[in-house]
Amino acid sequence: MITLDTIRAAHDRIRPHIHHTPVLTNQTLNDRTGASLFFKCENFQKIGAFKARGGLNAVLQVVDTKAGKAVATHSSGNHAQAVAYAARQVGLPAYIVMPRTAPQVKKDAVRGYGAEVIECEPTQAAREAGVQTIIDETGAVLVHPYDDEWVIAGQATAATELITDFGQPPFDLILTPVGGGGLLSGTALATHFLSPTTRVIGCEPEGAADAVLSFQSGQVESAPYIDTIADGLMARLSDRTLGYIRQHVSAILTVPDADIIAAMRLVWERMKIIIEPSCAVTLAVVLRYPDQFAGKKVGVILTGGNVDLGKLPF
């Protein structure tokens, strides 16, 4: 089980390799939502996303424990870059299985960090089969995108910084997107330890709505269909992440792609920063369910800014 000491050790381990990202506010968005919003800008993180935290913690642990001489993973993009970046930091080979439909900007970035990209069909089964083949052929250690204690502990450090820096008075709520659940699990754990009166809410696209069903049923469910612009949130929860989420998360709320695109554009226009569609799901939730957030102090983790600028949705 992950403890507060686990999270603090992860933070100490990765601190030399990451940015302590800023927290921004915006009066226009506060006025529009009726909430006091504090945006933790992981779009300014190394590799452009929070995933650097979990990837680094896991890869550094592979080195520290001498678990293997190479690492492998599957990812649509941001975790792929995180593992590639972390592997370069410690001099390990990295093999990354990516869906052929992943944004080209993310594939190029992974190769830029020196990792080998192996493309596959855009299904969970194809990703898992592809990475297993690599592991069998190379002996690489799997760094799972979210079903991994080291990864979850690393992701928890974003909320740790947010709460430590801006958590007095305590946040009423903290929001993160949810795909496979690594960030949501880590955020919920950090919040449970450091700010127990704060509620954590997961934010999910309607076009990949497995987490909300799993949250309700208590077992890992598949989304009824996968059709969303939020390419980073298509993964399904694991038993591990569902367990943490069911224990420490208050709710999971869903939004349609039209709301995600509108929220993304609003951040670009009003905050003058670049975020990707998966990142915009949190603000989209605040805008769609205003009664749940009006008058509240709300932490919002902006997860990443790796956008294919040739394929903007607006």
From TrEMBL:
Its cofactor is pyridoxal 5'-phosphate. It comes from the Bacteria. Residues 14-304 form the Tryptophan synthase beta chain-like PALP domain. Signal peptide: none annotated. The keyword Cell cycle does not apply. GO terms for molecular function: ATP binding; D-serine ammonia-lyase activity; L-serine ammonia-lyase activity; magnesium ion binding; pyridoxal phosphate binding; serine racemase activity; threonine racemase activity. CDD domains: Thr-dehyd. InterPro entries: TrpB-like_PALP, TrpB-like_PALP_sf. Keywords: Lyase, Pyridoxal phosphate. GO terms for biological process: D-serine biosynthetic process. Belongs to the serine/threonine dehydratase family. This is Threonine dehydratase. The lineage of its organism: Bacteria, Pseudomonadati, Bacteroidota, Cytophagia, Cytophagales.
